[in-house]
Amino acid sequence: NLRIRNAGEFQVTKSSTENMLIADPDGDVKLYYDGSEKMSTASWGVDVQGTLRADVLNLLDDEKVKIGDASDLEIYHDGSNTYIDNDTGILRVRGSHVRICDTSNNTFFSGESDKTRIYHNDSVVIETINNGIKSTGSGQRDICVGSTNAGGAYIILDGDSNGDFSGSDYAYIAHNTVGDLEVVARRPSGGNSAVIIKAYDGS
Asked: Under the phi-then-psi rule, with left for phi > 0, alpha for psi from -120 to 50, and beta for the rest, what region is 116?
């Protein structure tokens, strides 16, 4: 075995001005590239200056990847579930086409610049369009609005104001708490409203 021992600081240098390795007793060890420090040890681990490249980054359960000056973003696996924790600002997932799938590539959600889609059993059930949403496809299509505590169920329409369903300028279809179906229209002026059912004849 080859052992190099020194009671004080140990250095490997190319010249008096270009360090290659510096090791302090009971302290850090520094590695250099072309005279620039690239890696140093510390009591808590290793500090890298620059880019770290690896074929595989293998972390055990509950070991975390921490990103940000205050470790604002954490990514880890606890043995049962995987977590992406962000406690500062907005967590943005960006791409020209974003898709969320299971391990069999069955899609739950996809998003592009002109549409967002929600899937059930890998088939699109809801898609956004330029003026709202649509649900199309083969077979029966249902949109269910329900209350689990008999509080009533409502579809609210606000087409003549700011669209926030407040005040007295909206209409709604409801299944009320006693089981009746209500179709209600409210005018913003407070006058009499009308419920109009008509066929569109194209004129």
From this structure: beta
What confidence score (pLDDT) does residue 40 get? 97
In what side-by-side order are the strands of the sheet with 153-157?
Answer: 153-157, 171-175, 181-185
- What is the signed CA dihedral for 80, 82, 88, 91, rounded to 10 degrees? -150
Handedness of CA 144, 150, 151, 157 (dihedral sign): positive
Helix ranges, the chain (H): none
Pairing of strands 82-86, 73-77: antiparallel
pTM for the model stands at 0.66
DSSP 117-133: EEEETTEEEEEEETTEE
Q: Average pLDDT in the 34-40 region?
A: 94
Q: By C-alpha distance, which of 178, 134, 164 is closest to 124?
A: 134
